[in-house]
Amino acid sequence: MLGDIGDRRGSGISAFALALGAAVLVAGCQTTGVQNVAGTPTNYQDTRTAGLVRGTGIESQDIKSMVDKMVRHMLANPTLAGAAEPPRVIVDSAYFENQSSQRIDKDVLTDRLATQLQISANGRILFVNRERADMVEKERALKRAGKTDTGTVGLTQAVAGADYRLSGRITSLDQRTRSGVQQRYMNIVFRMTDLENGITVWANQYDFKKAGQDDVVYR
Question: Which of 126, 45, 52, 135 is nearest to 91 (CA)?
């Protein structure tokens, strides 16, 4: 009987302690003013227009407009797209320089340019992939060692040489007022150079100027 009384007292004390702890916790949350506010939900945005986060640098809508302009102009060039035998070109970021104040991944720009140009050229221009030269060399070595067959196109004496290669430069001019308004002029120049004689056979540029009270961090 005494054991039962002890058990009931112990249970009562435990229940009281739990209730007291819960009351203290609720009171603490009320006094500190903690609010679990839901964050802004992620949503898809049109890459052809300015997004929710915008600044004074190169953004998705600029890249799309820029690439569209360059592709149309290159395909109107008789040297690049009107030759009897399709010329071989290299389009990558190896010789594309960023001298602007904006941090940007150049591959975002040149990858889109290469892809859109190849789609639109539809065989009028051939593209040499120098970025994966090691991949080509490994496969050529396997074929010549007899470890694989020759494939369906046969063997060549050497890998494809290129006729023209893309180069370019991104530059900027930045201004800021004492009140914090920022203005940036961006200029992006593209050139296609003959890899035998060094002559530039095509060139174009894209520029814009933006201003705003607050800028964003580009990564």
Answer: 126
* Helix %, strand %, coil % of the chain (to 5): 35, 20, 40
Category of 151 on φ-ψ map: left (φ > 0), alpha (ψ -120 to 50) or beta:
left
Tell me the two tokens of residue 152.
């369906």
Question: Please, are residues 187 and 208 in contact by the beta-carbon 8 Å criterion?
Answer: no
Strands (E) in 41-179, as ranges, are 88-90, 96-98, 126-127, 164-176
Q: What is the mean pLDDT of residues 162-180?
A: 93
Please, which residues have CB within 8 angstroms of residue 166's CB and are 6 or more apart in sequence? 89, 90, 91, 92, 95, 96, 110, 113, 190, 191, 192
Q: Tell me if 129 sits within 8 A of 165, measured CB to CB.
A: no
Query: Domains in the chain, start-ordered, CATH in brackets?
Result: 60-211 (3.40.50)
pTM for this prediction: 0.75
> What are 191's strand-pairing partners?
167, 203
pLDDT higher than threshold 70 for residue 115 = yes
- Tell me the torsion sign for CA atoms 57, 60, 63, 66: negative
